[in-house]
Amino acid sequence: MKIATYNVNGINARLPVLLRWLEATTPDVVCLQELKAPQEKFPAQAIADVGYHGIWHGQKSWNGVAILTRNLEIEEVRRALPGDEEDEQSRYLEAIVNNIHIGCLYLPNGNPAPGPKFDYKLRWFERLNAHAATLLALDKPVVLTGDFNVIPTELDAYKPERWVEDALFRPESRSAFQALVGQGWTDALRKLYPDQTIYTFWDYFRNAYERNAGLRIDHFLLSPQLDGRLIAAGVDHAVRGWEKTSDHAPVWIQLAEE
């Protein structure tokens, strides 16, 4: 079973890229972030035409998440992260696919930091960690994936000294991510490639992609029930070089069947 995550940075603006990638790689499940489209503007028909259906939680201009599947039933569990009923930002979607709980998330960026946006990021992170603990307590296969907007270690950034004051790399963000993983989750890419330079995001400026001046901020966290089923993982690096593409590349894992 192949599961992918992709921050599309505007699903309608990047639709040709998304469809090309889906047809070329045919993942079984796809988690999308940063749709930047209201619910009614999601391109469901175009996606169905290449063999996918799913659920989505849109939001005008910003945010938005979706879970797509190919030839698999999808059962929606929730479309908001617990802990703040007044939070209207579309950043979390959870479903069961093929007996696996899948949480698709778009964690707040948090810049400028310090400030209100960073405070919101940390509160959201607290809510995520609390919900993640309840998911682990289910004692079932769970995947948490998406754009975490966190650079976990210096290995995950080109010239990390330039990111010291950024919300993605501040100690509070890294500590929250470490606390999350410390609950018992497996960082899938780091399990298979513990020392390798791996990036999932390259800024549009200063020829970052051409220089491979990137960040690893899109992550797969696996519950203990899936740790032994992880057989492959990677980044579709070349997609970042396509015309009119997102500033993120798709990330994927391959799980053995039960």
What's the average pLDDT?
98
Q: What is CATH's topology name?
A: Deoxyribonuclease I, Chain A
Largest sheet: 6 strands, mixed
Distance between the termini: 10 Å
- Helix/strand structural class: alpha+beta
Secondary structure: number of strands = 12
Helices and strands, in order, run as EHEHEEEEEHEHEHHEHEE
Stretches where pLDDT is under 50 for at least 5 consecutive residues are: none
Strand content: 15-25%
The top-level CATH class is: Alpha Beta
Radius of gyration: 17 Å
CATH superfamily: Endonuclease/exonuclease/phosphatase
**What CATH architecture would you give?**
4-Layer Sandwich
Strand order of the largest sheet: 3-4-2-1-12-11
Write down the domain tally.
Answer: 1
Helix content: 10-25%
| Tally of separate helices | 7
The shape is globular
